[in-house]
Amino acid sequence: MGISMRCMTTGRYRWRTWFRGVAPASLSWLAPKGKRDCGAHEWYRESADTWRCYHCEAGVTHENPWTPSETVRHSLAGLMALTEHPGPESAPEIQRLLREASMALEEQVDEAREVFRMVKEKTGVTVESPLISV
Fold it and tell me: How far apart are CA 31 and CA 57, in angstroms?
C-alpha cells in the first residue's frame, strides 16, 4: 500500500488524520477525530452547505471556508471526478460545482482587474488580456 497522505505537522490531531489516511478502513476507529478544536483547520466538503475539518469534530462551518482559488481548484477536481463516471444523479451536483467555480472565477477576475487598474494608474504599464480590460 502506498502512502497517499503527507504527515501533517501543524495543529493538533495531525497524527490521527495521517493514520486514518494510511491504515485500512477497519482500523480507523483507533484514531478518531479530536473532540477539541485542532487550531488549524483543513476543510473538506461534507454536503452542499457543510464543511468539516479533517482533524477535529469542532471544525464545522456552513459558510465556504475556502478562498476563491481553493474553491475553483476543489470544484474543478469534483467536476473531473463526476464526469469520469457520470450517472443520472450527477447532474445537480455538476450544476452546483459549475456555478461555484464560475462565481469564484468571477471574484478572481474582479480582483485581478482592480490590480491591473491600479498598476496602470501608478505606472502606466498595461497588457492586452482577453479576460481583463482596464
Answer: 13
Assess whether 85 and 108 both reside in one domain: yes
In this prediction, residue 3 carries a pLDDT of 43
pLDDT digit string (tens) for 82-114? 999 888 888 998 999 999 999 999 999 999 999
Residue 2 has pLDDT above 90, yes or no: no
Burial 81-98 (b: 16+ CB within 10 A, else e): eeeeeeeeeeeeeeeebe
Q: d(Cα 109, Cα 131) in Å, to the nearest integer?
A: 8
Instruction: Give how many domains the chain has, as a whole number.
Output: 2
Q: How far is CA 67 from the centre of its chain?
A: 8
Q: Please give the Cα distance from 62 to 50 (Å, whole number).
A: 5
> 53 lies in which domain range?
14-61
